[in-house]
C-alpha cells in the first residue's frame, strides 16, 4: 500500500518551475509548493500473499488497485 504524491502532478509542477526560470525568475525567489494531488495505490496480490485482509471500502476508495 502506498499513499503519496501523484507523479504526473509532480512533473507538471516541475515544468511550471522550469518555465518560470526560463522566463527570467530567480530560483531563490520562487515559492516552495507542496503537491495538491495524492493517490492511494494498493497491491492486492502482495497483501494476499502476506495473508493480509484489505477491506472492500478501502479498495473502493483507492486510486489504483494492483490485482
Mean pLDDT: 93
Shape: rod-shaped
H/E order of the elements? Answer: EHEHHE
- Specify the number of helices: 3
As laid out across the biggest beta sheet, the strand order is: 1-2-3
DSSP strand count: 3
| Rg of Cα set | 18 Å
Which runs of at least 5 residues are low in confidence (pLDDT < 50)? none
Largest sheet, in brief, is:
3 strands, mixed
Strand percentage, roughly? 15-25%
Structural class estimated from helices and strands: alpha+beta
What percent of the residues sit in helical stretches (DSSP H or I)?
40-55%
Distance from first to last alpha carbon: 12 Å
Question: Brief description of this entry?
Answer:
The chain is α+β, with helices and mostly antiparallel strands. It is 42% helix and 19% strand. It is rod-shaped, with a radius of gyration of 18 Å.
Written overview of the protein:
This protein has 67 residues and is an alpha+beta fold. The chain has helices at residues 7-22, 44-49, 56-61, and strands spanning 2-5, 38-43, 64-66. It has a 3-stranded mixed β-sheet.
Main attributes of the structure:
about 70 residues, rod-shaped, three-stranded mixed β-sheet
